[in-house]
Amino acid sequence: xxxxxxxxxxxxxxxxxxxxxxxxxxxxxxxxxxxxxxxxxxxxxxxxxxxxxxxxxxxxxxxxxxxxxxxxxxxxxxxxxxxxxxxxxxxxxxxxxxxxxxxxxxxxxxxxxxxxxxxxxxxxxxxxxxxxxxxxxxxxxxxxxxxxxxxx
Length: 152
Prior knowledge:
The protein is α/β, with parallel strands linked by helices and 152 residues long. The protein contains 6 helices and 5 strands; from the N terminus they run E-H-E-H-E-H-H-E-E-H-H. The protein has one domain (5-150): 3-Layer(aba) Sandwich (Rossmann fold). A 5-stranded mixed beta sheet has the order 1-2-3-5-4, with helices on both faces. This is DJ-1/PfpI domain-containing protein.
């Protein structure tokens, strides 16, 4: 079984993965396949600090090797700084804000006004819909149970 990695950093928005962690750590009726999720990047306002360059390099490597990367909120801006968004459809929290906080954002034609975008093995999302989408995409729970959980 592969591990699911969540990159933890100063200023991260820990509430963004709070719904996902119990689903990854519960074997009662969940059918989790950890081989499918490899890296999850959460929002934070320090992604452009040089101390995060190693994890960003790892992100590129995971994507090139067809591993799944989930990027939400401000971490999508970090992918922009790598040039990854130039060839991939994506979302962040809101286009106007994203353009303000992203360094040299030139990929507006790939920006979709949705809550979540899946482009191959890259999943980008606004913060609120990521847990539901990950669980659905990776078939971790029967959809009837997932919908009941989501609409509770």
